[in-house]
């Protein structure tokens, strides 16, 4: 590759393409939702006042729910264990449901960097829900107080302020629902603008609600697109189980390990699992993991694989092999999803991904220098 094409690719990668149609970001300003918005803002102000009366600033109510550094991810034994999500309600089209599907009522707080949040964005787009569920994207940097919202004048591409409750930090969204919340302040968050509460903060459950529960509100072409169809459910569950443990979470367990043993154990399991995926795809009548049909198994694996070469190889030391050089079938599967199905490409922002990991995890990369390569982030289909 020539020097100039490398520098073109770099500047594209670090600038990042504009992903969302303007309308998805600004929808929350529409007259139909303005009363919901103003009540939400009043609610936030009420919480803010209450915390100030207690002698504590709303945005600095706590420095960290567990009183530990936010970057201290690993347990004392050197092993990273992901916390269980706390909000587990469901949007349901069943009669009398507490959270019924409604246009404009629900909102997703996401980070483009986060693979779990990206699942929800992919499904939102695959199901044609962009006009039904609004989105806000946090700043790519995860600091000591967790995710924060970008100020308009910071000019962070594809991220902006919280227009719903005026939060500066995502933790305020959690505390607005439960001032005594002690969990981590994770994305994605599925927010109910009407009841001003968090419905669910577990991506694996959010995506399943989106497959079916809004079918009464969407165009025919998106109805009955169920990525967890009953005939595949058993296979998907079985695959999700080991792929989550060894690959989706396996990259974090490798990267956040604080002992040589924990790192080696997890990185070896990760590459054994990738070898297994390569075999499954080789033997599938393709192009997907379970054959001709795109399923949840593909949707859950993709956000990890697309981040693999650009970030996990160097930042999380997952460097025994690379997708582009050593896993030809996974590589082709990833390229097909990215280049041929807009929901995968449109929700992938390499700038946020690369900057987030390399500039937030200062325990791993104290100088926060973002490596330039690999160039490009993803190869064209011809290569
Ligand atoms: N179980 C959650 C995990 C989400 C998660 O861990 N998100 C990370 C970003 S990739 C996060 O927000 N971490 C912030 C923190 O832990 O402080 C899900 O799948 O929704």
UniProtKB/TrEMBL annotation:
Domain GST C-terminal as annotated: residue spans: 229-357
Keyword Cell wall biogenesis/degradation attributed: yes
InterPro entries hit by this protein: Glutathione-S-Trfase_C-like (IPR010987), Glutathione-S-Trfase_C_sf (IPR036282), Glutathione_S-Trfase (IPR040079), Glutathione_S-Trfase_N (IPR004045), GST_Omega-like_C (IPR047047), GST_Omega/GSH (IPR016639), Thioredoxin-like_sf (IPR036249)
Keywords: Cell wall biogenesis/degradation, Cytoplasm, Oxidoreductase, Transferase
Subcellular location: Cytoplasm
Residues making up the signal peptide according to the UniProt record: none
EC number: 1.8.5.1, 2.5.1.18
GO terms assigned for molecular function: glutathione dehydrogenase (ascorbate) activity; glutathione transferase activity
Annotated site, Lowers pKa of active site Cys, chain positions: 312, 357
Main location: cytoplasm
Pfam families (UniProt xref): GST_C_2, GST_N_2
Superkingdom to which the source organism belongs: Eukaryota
Reaction catalyzed: L-dehydroascorbate + 2 glutathione = glutathione disulfide + L-ascorbate; RX + glutathione = an S-substituted glutathione + a halide anion + H(+)
Annotated GO CC locations: cytoplasm
Record: residues binding glutathione: 147, 184-187, 202-203
GO biological processes: cell wall organization
PANTHER family the record matches: GLUTATHIONE S-TRANSFERASE OMEGA-LIKE 1-RELATED, GLUTATHIONYL-HYDROQUINONE REDUCTASE
Family stated for the protein in its record: Belongs to the GST superfamily. Omega family.
Protein's recorded name: Glutathione S-transferase omega-like 2
Species, as recorded: Arthrobotrys conoides
């Amino acid at each position: 590759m020539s020097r100039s094409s490398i520098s073109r690719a770099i500047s594209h990668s670090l600038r990042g393409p504009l992903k969302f149609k303007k309308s998805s970001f600004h929808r929350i300003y529409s007259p139909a939702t303005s009363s919901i918005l103003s009540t939400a803002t009043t609610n936030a102000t009420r919480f803010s006042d209450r915390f100030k009366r207690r002698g504590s600033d709303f945005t600095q109510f706590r420095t960290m729910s567990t009183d530990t550094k936010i970057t201290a991810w690993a347990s004392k034994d050197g092993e990273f264990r992901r916390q269980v999500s706390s909000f587990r309600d469901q949007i349901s089209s069943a009669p009398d449901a507490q959270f019924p599907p409604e246009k404009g009522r629900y909102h997703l707080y996401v980070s483009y960097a986060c693979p779990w949040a990206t699942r929800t964005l992919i499904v939102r787009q695959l199901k044609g829900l962009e006009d039904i569920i609004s989105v806000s994207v946090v700043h790519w940097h995860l600091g000591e107080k967790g995710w924060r919202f970008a100020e308009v004048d910071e000019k962070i591409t594809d991220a902006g302020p919280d227009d719903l409750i005026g939060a500066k930090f995502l933790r305020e969204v959690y505390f607005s629902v439960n001032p005594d919340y002690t969990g981590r302040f994770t994305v994605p968050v599925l927010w109910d603008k009407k009841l001003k509460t968090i419905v669910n903060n577990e991506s694996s459950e959010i995506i399943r609600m989106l497959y079916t529960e809004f079918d009464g509100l969407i165009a025919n072409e998106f109805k009955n697109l169920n990525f967890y169809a009953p005939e595949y459910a058993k296979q998907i569950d079985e695959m999700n189980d080991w792929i989550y443990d060894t690959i989706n979470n396996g990259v974090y367990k490798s990267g956040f390990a604080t002992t040589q043993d924990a790192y080696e154990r997890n990185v070896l399991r990760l590459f054994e699992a990738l070898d297994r995926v390569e075999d499954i795809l080789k033997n599938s009548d393709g192009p997907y993991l379970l054959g001709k049909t795109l399923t949840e198994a593909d949707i859950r694996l993709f956000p990890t694989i697309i981040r693999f070469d650009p970030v996990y190889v160097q930042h999380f030391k997952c460097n025994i092999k690379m997708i582009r050089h050593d896993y030809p079938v996974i590589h082709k599967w990833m390229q097909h999803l990215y280049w041929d199905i807009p929901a995968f490409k449109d929700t992938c922002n390499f700038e946020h991904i690369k900057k987030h990991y390399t500039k937030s995890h200062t325990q791993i990369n104290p100088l926060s220098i973002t490596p330039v390569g690999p160039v490009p982030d993803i190869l064209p289909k011809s290569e």
